[in-house]
């Protein structure tokens, strides 16, 4: 019998409460998680109209406006830096350009920031898993300067150190390397309606000036190459991210394949040791790299992605039409796409997240898959609400954020198509499809790192919950 809206709200509310209990009780069972590879410094600046206009005038408004219309997509001069910022504002679009020029880097360093935060998917997840969930976490830091080390919160967060042949795990703050580089991503945030000259932002977003040579090439520290076996000895789980930046060729003659061979060797070590691994996708511009990443998925246990990323994979293993439908948000196309991705790769778990709902397709069954997704949705809502997560009670607070009612209609469509949907769980004989409506925060404090929060929370809690 069809449930009323009120009944649905009540049902999901109780499922959410239960999931929070189950997940938080289970998290202490995880012995350790490895996070690799990208960690950097995010320097956030909230743009100020007067300051920005003055700086643009100073470098030459005319040239900046010309470049704004003919975007160079990278920064080799101050004119290009400001062209990027203004273009992002004008389109209300998130953009990221690499800063090649030393002089511009110095200028950015002097211009400064309002806030520093740990950045990079591995870095962000370390502060969440180690700092908030209190799970022992080993994180890869391409460089470990003081400015970055201090952005890791206190807690069981470790980097491996090898001294005189001895292996130790210490907090990044205890392993600072004074001579290593500060890998800074300058994030210029603007709100909807932000005005500079005659340009008005149609929506809030950010422009990123990336001054980080290491993560751009997925630099892997020597310790991580030479002693990987020792490093992973105490972990049950691993989350890999940061491969999206790979390019086909580098100026020194190396290619993305050199990096991916190294990653593959590490995945082999993880698999030998039965360590479950998750790959967090991010939009990968280069099609060859994207294709090679798909070929690497069979070595992972799990993958996390959003609608843009899933569509970009369908351009390769599906077709243009399916890719377009996924982008347009057709739920049955999303389901077809994740089935296809599982057929092609054999991967055991696919976690799809989009605004308003998540779905997981798994080659195993259990309500823990749903509970993990629900816990992840609470973490995401808390992250949106507070910007920065410090403790579990903030995640508990997210229980009072309303559940997205629009997703109830999607759930009804699934019921029509598949028959029984048992509290979000659909038995597909050889696979389980799990669907949950998420919690949406109406005016988020920040949207940076929500995707990483979702995927890592779900992956880690699912494997922690026993059934
Ligand atoms: N206001 C919000 N409240 C709750 N969840 C949100 C909100 N805005 C975005 N999200 C979630 O964050 C996810 C962003 O993940 P993703 O697209 O992978 O971006 P990123 O990895 O850059 O954080 C969306 O799929 C959506 O589920
Ligand atoms: Mg993401």
From TrEMBL:
Q: Which cofactors does the annotated protein need, by name? A: Mg(2+)
**Organism of this sequence:** Thermococcus paralvinellae
Q: Where does Mg(2+) bind?
A: 280, 309, 452
Q: Where is the active site?
A: 452 (proton acceptor)
Where does the record say this protein resides?
Cytoplasm
Q: Which keywords label this protein?
A: Carbohydrate metabolism, Cytoplasm, Glucose metabolism, Glycolysis, Kinase, Magnesium, Metal-binding, Transferase
Reactions mediated catalytically: D-glucose + ADP = D-glucose 6-phosphate + AMP + H(+); D-glucosamine + ADP = D-glucosamine 6-phosphate + AMP + H(+)
Binding, ADP = 306, 353-354, 441, 451
Q: What name does UniProt use for this protein?
A: ADP-dependent glucose/glucosamine kinase
């Amino acid at each position: 019998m069809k449930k009323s809206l009120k009944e649905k709200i009540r049902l999901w509310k109780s499922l959410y409460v239960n999931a929070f209990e189950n997940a938080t009780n289970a998290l202490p069972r995880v012995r350790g998680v490895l996070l690799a590879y990208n960690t950097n410094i995010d320097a956030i600046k909230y743009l100020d109209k007067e300051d920005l206009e003055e700086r643009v005038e100073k470098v030459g408004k005319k040239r900046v406006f010309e470049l704004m219309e003919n975007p160079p997509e990278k920064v080799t001069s101050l004119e290009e830096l400001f062209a990027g910022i203004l273009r992002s504002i004008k389109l209300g679009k998130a953009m990221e350009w690499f800063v090649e020029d030393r002089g511009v880097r110095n200028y950015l360093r002097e211009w400064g920031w309002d806030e520093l935060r740990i950045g990079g998917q591995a870095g962000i997840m370390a502060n969440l898993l180690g700092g908030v969930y209190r799970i022992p976490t080993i994180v890869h830091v391409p460089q470990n300067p003081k400015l970055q080390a201090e952005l890791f919160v206190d807690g069981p967060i470790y980097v491996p150190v090898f001294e005189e042949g001895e292996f130790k795990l210490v907090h990044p703050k205890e392993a600072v390397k004074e001579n290593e580089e500060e890998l800074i991503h300058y994030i210029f945030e603007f709100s909807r309606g932000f005005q500079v000259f005659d340009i008005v932002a149609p929506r809030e977003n950010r422009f990123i000036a990336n001054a980080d040579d290491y993560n751009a090439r997925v630099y892997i520290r020597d310790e991580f190459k030479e002693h990987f076996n020792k490093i992973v000895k105490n972990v049950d789980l691993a989350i890999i991210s940061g491969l999206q930046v790979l390019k086909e060729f580098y100026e020194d003659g190396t290619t993305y394949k050199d990096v991916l061979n190294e990653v593959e060797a590490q995945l082999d070590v993880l698999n030998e040791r039965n360590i479950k691994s998750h790959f967090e996708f991010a939009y990968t511009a280069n099609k060859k790299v994207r294709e090679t990443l798909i070929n690497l998925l069979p070595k992972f246990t799990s993958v996390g992605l959003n609608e843009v990323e899933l569509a970009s994979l369908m351009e390769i293993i599906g077709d243009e039409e399916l890719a377009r439908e996924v982008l347009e948000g057709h739920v049955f196309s999303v389901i077809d796409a994740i089935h296809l991705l599982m057929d092609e790769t054999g991967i055991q778990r696919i976690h799809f997240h989009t605004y308003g709902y998540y779905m997981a397709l798994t080659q195993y069954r259990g309500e823990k898959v749903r509970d993990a997704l629900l816990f992840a949705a609470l973490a995401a809502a808390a992250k949106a609400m507070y910007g920065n997560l410090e403790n579990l009670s903030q995640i508990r607070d997210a229980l009072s954020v309303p559940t997205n009612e629009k997703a109830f209609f999607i759930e009804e469509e699934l019921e029509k198509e598949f028959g029984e949907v048992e509290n979000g769980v659909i038995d597909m004989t050889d696979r389980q499809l799990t669907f949950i409506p998420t919690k949406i925060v109406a005016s988020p404090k920040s949207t940076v790192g929500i995707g990483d929060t979702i995927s890592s929370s779900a992956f880690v809690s699912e494997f922690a919950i026993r059934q």
